[in-house]
TrEMBL record, chain A:
Species per Swiss-Prot/TrEMBL record: Drosophila persimilis
Family: Belongs to the ribonuclease III family. Mitochondrion-specific ribosomal protein mL44 subfamily.
GO biological process: mitochondrial translational elongation; RNA processing
Gene3D superfamilies cross-referenced by the UniProt entry: 3.30.160.20, Ribonuclease III domain
Cellular compartment(s): Mitochondrion
Protein name, per record: Large ribosomal subunit protein mL44
Gene Ontology CC: one annotated term: microprocessor complex
Lineage, top ranks: Eukaryota, Metazoa, Ecdysozoa, Arthropoda, Hexapoda
TrEMBL record, chain B:
Protein name per Swiss-Prot or TrEMBL: Large ribosomal subunit protein mL43
GO biological process, one term: mitochondrial translation
Stated family: Belongs to the mitochondrion-specific ribosomal protein mL43 family.
UniProt entry keywords in alphabetical sequence: Mitochondrion, Ribonucleoprotein, Ribosomal protein
Domain Ribosomal protein/NADH dehydrogenase intervals: 37-110
Gene3D superfamilies cross-referenced by the UniProt entry: Glutaredoxin (3.40.30.10)
Example of a GO cellular component annotation carried by this entry: mitochondrial large ribosomal subunit
GO function term, MF aspect, one: structural constituent of ribosome
Pfam families: L51_S25_CI-B8
Species whose genome carries this gene: Drosophila persimilis (Fruit fly)
Phylogenetic lineage: Eukaryota, Metazoa, Ecdysozoa, Arthropoda, Hexapoda
Mitochondrion in keyword set: yes
Location of the protein in the cell: Mitochondrion
């Protein structure tokens, strides 16, 4: 085929020599396209996967509009300079200062505000509010359990997840892209701080409730907090609440002395069944039963009444002091 | 569903970040309208920008709108979502009404719906309210103190009466009747 084509080309080229007509332009088949594309693809494959491009590098990018929209999207009124400060990580500020110092700018003009102060304030507000919220919505859970649940809500992973779903990823000024979970979490705390500064602590509390406390929805609370020694804890609780002596009893078993043995243990106190559980041997089953009893005593069963996220925690109950 | 959907990302309809539980956050974070200033295929897009875009931006302050004119290219809508999705829509030869509808779709969905195959139209984290069935569930009270091996429990439930058993039963009935007859005779005496 290519031979034929080259012969045809030669004929076309040869024609002007024979006749006196002007050279007719012809649409050639571009035979360089496919090899070039192949070569480009080959080179791309050799380089491996590329790093994600920061959105800020696009032509259609306006940081000011993005900041404005960030506040409006969440239904809050931020002061934009403060919000921008909340998105400036310390590492980035240092880097910028270093660059400017190299250019010979005086020390007095070098200061770039970073979000450390705001993040500190925000994390303080978030912790205080989450603790107050848990105290009000899980009144029967002991302090240890409330602390465990609060530490889940305020952990870097949870905060980073919330932060990235609020669209901070493209707004944060950091030295690395995409921003690390730590910087995502820190900037969310800083946003809470900035909100408290611009529209008052009450709005910041509502923000924490709407975006951080709601992460508890449909969570199994036993996953977030499992008592280490449930039987001892159950005994203590029963003593405190005067429910009577704790007494585990075998409700049933099957497959004794086999690999697939199963024991069903119920925990009674004062002839009342508190909880029951299964296990491959009696101690395990007792422990499961104790956990079950604790769940119903603390009202953290999986079929408990759902959390009320419209809850108004009174400001005086939020312990901001210290 | 065609074969081309087999490798499409699949999932369940879910609200990201418990959206709407605390407060509702519009999931479309920015929208880019690309169009040509004089090509006919961009007519609808130009009309949309002229007549509706300012109102749209005013009504949705949480969405950043970028308008990008470019020569002799097809008009395009690009939506970017909070979950990182990016949706590209060609609006070649669309009218402004059609574009209004597409923009409204982008505004109200929570991710790029065209790149997700729904496995089911519903989803639940707790499939069973009652919990899993166990052999200990709803057992009869007699089964509790049962000693094994037991003759009673080993019998089939639907075993018919044997001829021998029937005879023995008949004999017992007669004997009982006989005893009663003797008693009634004695009473009569």
């Amino acid at each position: 085929m290519s031979f034929l084509r080259s012969v045809a080309g030669a004929l076309v080229l040869a024609r002007p020599l024979n006749s006196s007509r002007t050279v007719q332009t012809r649409r050639h088949i571009k035979r360089w396209v496919a090899p070039t594309l192949r070569e480009l693809a080959h080179r791309q494959q050799k380089q491996g996967p590329q790093k994600p491009e920061p959105r800020a590098g696009y032509v259609e990018w306006n940081y000011r509009s993005e900041l404005f929209a960030f506040g409006k999207r969440l239904g809050e009124n931020f002061e934009l300079p403060q919000l921008q400060e909340a998105f400036t990580q310390r590492s980035y500020a240092h880097q910028e200062e270093e660059k400017q110092r190299k250019l010979g700018i005086e020390e007095g003009d070098l200061k770039i505000a970073d979000n450390q102060e705001l993040a500190k304030m925000g994390s303080h507000i978030a912790r205080a509010y989450v603790e107050a919220f848990l105290k009000q919505s899980l009144p029967k859970v002991p302090k240890e359990g409330q602390e465990a649940i609060a530490s889940y809500l305020l952990s870097t992973e949870t905060l980073a997840n919330v932060s990235s779903h609020l669209g901070t990823k493209d707004l944060i000024f950091t030295t690395e892209y995409p921003p690390s979970p730590e910087s995502l979490a820190e900037s969310l705390q800083a946003v809470i701080g900035a909100l408290a500064d611009s529209s008052g602590v009450e709005r910041a509390f509502l923000f924490v409730r709407d975006f951080i406390c709601t992460q508890l929805n449909q969570k199994d609370l036993l996953d977030l907090w499992t008592p280490k020694q449930p039987v001892q804890l159950l005994e203590e609780i029963c003593q405190q609440r005067k429910l009577g002596e704790v007494e585990p009893r075998l409700l049933g078993d099957c497959g004794k002395n086999t690999v697939l043995a199963a024991y069903h243990v119920g925990i009674y106190a004062n002839r009342q069944l508190l909880g029951k559980g299964f296990g491959e041997d009696v101690p395990t089953a007792t422990e499961t039963a104790a956990l079950d009893a604790l769940q119903s005593l603390f009202d953290i069963h999986e079929n408990r009444r759902p959390f009320d996220f419209g809850l108004q925690v009174e400001t005086k109950n939020v312990r901001l002091g210290n | 569903m065609s074969n081309s959907h087999l490798f499409l990302k699949s999932g369940f309809p879910r609200a990201p970040l418990q959206n709407g539980l605390g407060r509702y956050v519009c999931q479309l974070q920015r929208i880019t309208l690309k169009f040509c200033k004089n090509n006919g295929s961009s007519k609808g897009m130009r009309d949309f920008i002229e007549n509706h875009l300012v109102d749209f931006a005013k009504e949705n302050p949480g969405i950043v709108v970028y308008v990008k004119p470019r020569r002799h290219r097809t008009p395009v809508l690009v939506g970017e979502y909070l979950n990182g999705d990016r949706e590209w829509l060609s609006c070649r030869n669309s009218t402004q009404e059609e574009i209004t509808k597409w923009v409204d779709l982008l505004r109200t969905q929570n991710g790029s719906s065209s790149s997700l195959r729904l496995r089911k139209m519903w989803h639940t984290d707790v499939p069973s309210i009652q919990g899993p069935w166990t052999p200990f569930l709803l057992r009869s009270p007699e089964a509790h103190g049962q000693e094994y091996p037991s003759v009673e429990a080993s019998k089939p439930l639907d075993a018919p009466q044997t001829a021998t058993e029937k005879l023995i039963e008949l004999f017992r009935q007669q004997k009982q009747l006989g005893d009663e007859d003797v008693l009634s005779q004695k009473r009569a005496e």
